[in-house]
Amino acid sequence: MNNLQYEFGMVGLGVMGRNLALNMADHAVSVIGLDLDPAKAAALETEAGAGKQVRGTTSAEEFINAIRRPRALMLLVPAGKPVDASIASLLPLLEPGDIIVDGGNSYFPDTDRRVTELADKGIHFFGMGISGGEKGARFGPSMMPGGNREAYERLRPTFEAVAAKVNAEPCVSYLGNGSAGNYVKMVHNGIEYGIMQLIAETYDLLKRGLNFSDDELQRVFQQWNQTELQSFLIEITGEILQKTDEETGNRLVSMISDRARSKGTGKWTSQNAMDLQVPVPTIDTAVLMRDMSKYKEERVQAAKLLPNHTLQADAPTDRNELVNQMRHAFYFAMIATYAQGMAQLRVASEAYNYGLQLQEVAKIWRGGCIIRAVCLEDFRQAYEKNSELPNLLLDPKIGQDMMDRQQDTRAILKLAIDKGIPMPAFMASLSYFDAYRSETLPTNLIQAQRDYFGAHTYERTDREGIFHTLWNV
């Protein structure tokens, strides 16, 4: 029997759990893994290699007894019922002061429930978003933990060791109380939805609307990754566009079905934003466009019945200028998407008593995660200057960057309209910008309508009070 007391325990040795455990081993963190599959438990030790303090087991008792007290263990199992089942199976073996970390994409109200239930038993529960996929887990993810601040100190050395690093700073930080970590990851994924939709719309306008070749498209994204657009999603788009399908010889992306799938985190972001009355139109639009993609048969019928003859409309002849305008428009829409997500985090922090520091959020998103981008350093600096900044668009530098690019954004959208190419996420981003900077909106008319048909009352601009009018008298 191996009597070594391990620093950390990992429950679930699938792709993410195994890679994160191996990452820990590479950083001299002793780790024991638990999985019901004997092959996965055995493979953990084999993959770690000689000289690493790594062990796999199928025995929950052996697993729990091998972790040093207070025990720290992470669940990397599918969200929902599997998380509750794992907790239930381990709970009789745990002691007050032990810590369970859920590393999956759990819905934040579920995390709040688990925090409360386990606190009654003296167990600390953390919900922690992890971003970066398989490669990130293995070599350095961005990690977003939320829970008890004092208990976090037991986790901090391990998490800081395995996280991605930017300027030698680990891309992990204690974020706040309760479900703060899962909530931040949820909004992270909403922003991810938005940016991916913006990239897809860019690709569509250039390819279908302006007849850019596959090689031209690949070069555009590859070159953009050397500019202010430098980011993980732009980088991988360039790589995706270069990949050839071995069976047909075509670019692989052109052989992939346009029916998009999702796991629900973008929808959660939109739903909760509406609950909090925070406008996130680019994220909302990204969610609905994935839904639109599922109506393939109807779209095929509509394409025949409602043909798009506008695709033959004239296009600008200077492609270099067009690509430059497109780059500016993408930056504009991308910043608007981040601004919406960060504004949602600010409101949620107050509503749910998270105590989020948005500077820390921007800092840990700079590396390891799917939405990492060079512009996040600008966001970090903006919140460092003003921690109470209600919206990134109110930062002088970021606001000026948007002003400098708005005309190119309008030009690109006019071109898309002339070509009949849908760019709803770009349009939502521009409309968000225009609405946010409008001192006056036409909602006074809506208030009058509500009062007319439902006696819902209204406020006036010239004096305090609540008013109602008999409009048809």
Overall pLDDT: 95
Order of helices and strands: EHEHEHEHEHEHEHEEHHHHHHHHHHHH
- Count of individual beta strands: 9
Determine the structural class based on helices, strands and strand pairing. Answer: alpha/beta
The CATH architecture of the largest domain would be Orthogonal Bundle
- The name of the CATH topology of the largest domain is N-(1-d-carboxylethyl)-l-norvaline Dehydrogenase, domain 2
- The general outline is globular
The proportion of strand residues reads 5-15%
Enumerate the strands of the largest sheet in spatial order, edge to edge or round the barrel. 3-2-1-4-5-6-7
Structural write-up:
This protein has 473 residues and is α/β, with parallel strands linked by helices. The protein has three domains: 8-178, NAD(P)-binding Rossmann-like Domain (Rossmann fold), CATH 3.40.50; 185-436, N-(1-d-carboxylethyl)-l-norvaline Dehydrogenase, domain 2 (Orthogonal Bundle), CATH 1.10.1040; 440-473, Single alpha-helices involved in coiled-coils or other helix-helix interfaces, CATH 1.20.5.320. 55% of the residues lie in helices and 8% in strands. The protein has helices at residues 15-26, 38-48, 60-65, 81-90, 108-119, 133-139, 149-162, 180-209, 214-224, 232-242, 265-276, 281-293, 296-305, 319-352, 358-364, 376-385, 396-419, 424-436, 443-454, and strands at 8-11, 31-34, 54-57, 72-75, 99-102, 124-131, 142-146, 165-166, 169-170. The strands form two sheets. A seven-stranded mixed beta sheet has the order 3-2-1-4-5-6-7, with helices on both faces. A two-stranded antiparallel sheet has the order 8-9. Helix 4 links the parallel strand 4 and strand 5. Helix 8 packs across helix 11 and helix 14 (319-352) crosses helix 17 (396-419). The longest helix is centred in the C-terminal third of the chain and has 34 residues, at 319-352. The radius of gyration is 25 Å and the shape is globular.
